[in-house]
Design a protein that fits this description.
Layout: H1 2-16, E1 19-25, E2 29-31, E3 34-36, E4 39-46, E5 49-54, E6 57-67, E7 76-82, E8 85-92, E9 98-102
Parallel strand pairs: 2-8
Antiparallel strand pairs: 1-4, 2-3, 4-5, 5-6, 6-9, 7-8, 8-9
Length: 115
């Protein structure tokens, strides 16, 4: 009985924690005003918040998650230019229909772009 309750509790915790995906950045990139070095990052999306982690370095950003019409074949990162550097606008998650739209710098709540 205890193991069944513990199993259900762990399942509920994992569902509330959000989903994790791997994203590779090939160039220096800005997210939420912080510069990220090239490398592999774990992307965790929970509600309207995304967290990018690489080792001990963590960046949190407000996002809007929307569904595309069909699944993406691979994970891709769409950039915009901000002060001569790369700014993440959108991440399309491979194997899913999920598009993660990052809020533009200086935009208010709910100001995620849809480009």
């Amino acid at each position: 009985m205890r193991t069944r309750i513990l199993g259900l509790a762990l399942l509920a915790l994992s569902a509330a924690a959000g989903k994790n995906y791997t994203v590779t950045l090939f160039d220096p990139t800005m997210v939420a005003g912080q510069k990220l070095a090239p490398g592999d990052y774990q992307l965790e999306v929970t509600g309207n918040k995304a967290v990018l982690k690489n080792g001990k370095h963590t960046v949190e950003s407000p996002v809007k998650v929307v569904d595309a019409e069909r699944k993406f074949s691979s994970t891709t990162v769409r950039y915009g230019s901000e002060n001569g550097g790369n700014q993440i606008q959108e991440i399309r998650i491979g194997g899913t229909k999920m598009r993660v739209l990052f809020e533009e710098p200086g935009a208010g709540a709910g100001g995620a772009n849809g480009r």
